[in-house]
Design goal:
The complex is a heterodimer of chains A (126) and B (104). Chain A has 126 residues and is mainly beta. Chain A is built from 2 helices and 6 strands. Chain B contains 5 helices and 3 strands, in the order ααβααββα. The chains are: A mainly beta (126), B alpha+beta (104).
Chain lengths: 126, 104
C-alpha cells in the first residue's frame, strides 16, 4: 500500500492496493449499490466524529471495467463534498490493482446535488 | 478557513518557506523578510494568504507586528489527513472481506 499527500490546489489522497479478486468481480463491488453498502456506504448520524463509512455516494461518471467516480458525502445532513475515483487494472497474478484518488472539493466549484433524504443516494454505474 | 484553503496556501514554495520559518518561532515583518528576495508588498500578500487559511496569526507588540504559526489551522489540516488515512485502509479491509464473501 502506498499513500501520498501532494501539495496542490486542493487536498488529494491517493492509495494503491493489490487485490486477489479478478477485475470483473472488483468492478461489481465498486458499482453495484448492494455491494457498496457492504463495504463503503452506511448512513450515520450527524455529529459523529468517529467516521467509519461514507454517508452517501452519487455517481459522476464511469467507464465500465476501468474507473468509476463518485461524489462522496461524509454526513447525511451535509452536501457531498469530496470526489472519489476508483481505478482498476488487471495485475500479473490474475488479481486487480486497485487505486483510490480522493480529492477534497473546493467549496462552490461543483454543484452536484446532495442526498436530502434519509437514504444514501446510490446510483448504479452504467 | 477551509481545508482547501489551507492546502492552497501551502502549494506555493515561498509561502511554505515563510511558514517553515515561522514554525521555528515568532518573527516580526523585518526579521521574516531576511534571506527572502521578495518585496515587502509580496511578503504582505503571502502573509495575507497564510492568515486567510488560518495557518498564521499576527500579534501587535508596541509598534511591531509579530507573526507566528496558528495552532488551530494546523490542527484542522492534521485532522483531515488523520481522518482519511484511517478511513481508506479500513474501507479496503471491508472490501477484501466482501470479495471473499462474493465467492460463496
Amino acid at each position: 500500500m502506498t499513500a501520498g499527500v501532494p501539495f496542490s490546489d486542493k487536498p488529494v489522497l491517493t492509495y494503491e492496493y493489490e487485490l486477489d479478486a479478478p477485475p470483473e468481480k472488483v468492478w461489481r463491488a465498486l458499482t453495484v449499490p448492494e455491494f457498496l453498502q457492504r463495504w463503503l456506504v452506511q448512513p450515520q448520524p450527524a455529529g459523529d466524529d468517529e467516521q467509519a463509512a461514507a454517508a452517501s455516494l452519487s455517481l459522476l461518471e464511469s467507464e465500465t471495467g476501468r474507473y468509476v467516480r463518485y461524489a462522496m458525502g461524509e454526513r447525511e445532513d451535509e452536501p457531498a463534498e469530496d470526489i472519489v475515483t476508483f481505478l482498476i487494472d488487471p495485475n500479473d497474478a490474475g488479481g486487480t490493482t486497485f487505486r483510490i484518488v480522493h480529492e477534497a472539493r473546493p467549496a462552490g466549484k461543483l454543484s452536484v446535488t446532495a442526498a436530502n433524504g434519509n437514504r444514501p443516494a446510490l446510483l448504479r454505474a452504467a | 478557513m477551509s481545508e482547501a484553503e489551507i492546502f492552497k496556501a501551502l502549494a506555493d514554495p515561498t509561502r511554505r518557506a515563510i511558514f517553515e520559518r515561522l514554525a521555528d518561532g515568532e518573527r516580526n515583518a523585518t526579521e521574516l523578510r531576511e534571506g527572502f528576495a521578495i518585496s515587502q508588498p509580496a511578503m504582505s500578500q503571502h502573509l495575507a494568504v497564510l492568515r486567510a487559511a488560518g495557518l498564521v496569526s499576527e500579534e501587535r507588540v508596541g509598534r511591531n507586528v509579530n507573526y507566528g504559526v496558528d495552532a488551530d489551522g494546523l490542527m484542522q489540516m492534521y485532522q483531515w489527513l488523520h481522518r482519511y488515512r484511517k478511513f481508506w485502509p479500513e474501507r479496503v479491509d471491508a472490501l477484501r472481506q466482501l470479495l471473499k464473501e462474493m465467492d460463496q
